[in-house]
């Protein structure tokens, strides 16, 4: 009896540490099946992220997945005046959340992208909650994928300041203050006619710090904890 009382809490903790959420989206599609396995890093704390497809020359093809907040414009913290937020769900425009994806999906505009909103959200079949820990996303493209294509992920952890991306960097810009270290962009190229057993996405740059444009900035030397939101992103083509 003493042995059971001693070991049971340890087993429960171990199971919770290694739990893995499974998400499935666009399940009724007959398109190419993809599975993405995300290992969360030490800085993972309910980040916003989106997954999408592009041609190799950067033309947007489709959104594969987006967390519910950025997909609907409804966030866990609502705006409560200038530079103030209250805990609780509410609508907000946050162009600094995932600027690269926002601009790509809006006809690849370089400025003034139209953000998803409660009136014009991303379709439910491509959205889901933000996972707590490690997770697997089972995706389906809208059609069978052929030739070479890029799969991208953009991720942003709110309020993650560091010695370079401080609160004082753009003190009057409320969009920057909700973001701090800008959103990171990961990518991999897949040749669907010559598949490899597995792929790993790597960081290729970051978005504008307050979402003023849709450019990709490739210097990541000022980034710290943002690079540890995800420990790894693995892609398997089914």
Number of domains: 1
Strand order of the main beta sheet, please? Answer: 7-4-3-9-10-12
User: How is the biggest beta sheet arranged?
Assistant: 6 strands, mixed
Rounded to an integer, what's the Rg over CA atoms? Answer: 19 Å
Give the % helix. 10-25%
**Based on DSSP secondary structure assignment, what is the total number of beta strands?**
13
Shape: globular
Share of β-strand residues? 25-35%
Q: Which whole number gives the mean pLDDT?
A: 89
Order of helices and strands: HEEEEHEEHEEEHEEEE
Query: Helical segment tally?
Result: 4
Q: Which residue ranges are poorly predicted, with pLDDT under 50 across at least 5 consecutive positions?
A: 1-17
Structural class category: mainly beta
N-to-C terminal Cα separation, in Å?
Answer: 47 Å
How do you describe this structure in short?
The chain has one domain (about 20-235). The chain has four helices and 13 strands. The protein has helices spanning about 1-15, 70, 100-105, 175; strands spanning about 20-25, 35-40, 50-55, 60-65, 75-80, 85-90, 125-130, 135-140, 150-155, 185-190, 200, 200-205, 230-235.
């Amino acid at each position: 009896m003493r042995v059971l009382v001693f070991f049971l809490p340890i087993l429960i903790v171990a199971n919770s540490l290694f739990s893995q959420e499974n998400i499935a989206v666009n399940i009724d599609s007959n398109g190419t099946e993809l599975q993405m396995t995300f290992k969360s890093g030490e800085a993972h704390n309910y980040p916003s992220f989106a997954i999408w497809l592009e041609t190799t020359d950067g033309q947007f093809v489709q959104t594969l997945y987006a967390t519910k907040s950025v997909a609907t414009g409804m966030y866990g913290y609502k705006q409560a005046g200038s530079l103030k937020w209250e805990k609780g769900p509410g609508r907000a425009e946050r162009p600094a959340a995932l600027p690269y994806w926002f601009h790509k999906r809006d006809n690849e505009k370089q400025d003034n992208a139209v953000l998803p909103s409660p009136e014009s959200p991303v379709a439910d079949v491509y959205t889901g909650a933000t996972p707590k820990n490690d997770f697997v996303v089972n995706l389906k493209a809208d059609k069978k994928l052929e030739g070479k294509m890029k799969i991208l992920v953009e991720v942003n952890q709110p309020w993650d300041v560091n010695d370079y991306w401080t609160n004082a960097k753009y003190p009057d810009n409320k969009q920057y203050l909700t973001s701090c270290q800008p959103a990171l962009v990961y990518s991999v190229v897949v040749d669907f006619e010559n598949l490899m057993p597995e792929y790993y996405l790597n960081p290729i740059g970051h978005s504008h710090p307050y979402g003023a444009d849709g450019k990709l900035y490739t210097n990541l030397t000022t980034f710290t904890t943002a690079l540890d939101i995800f420990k790894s992103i693995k892609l398997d083509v089914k």
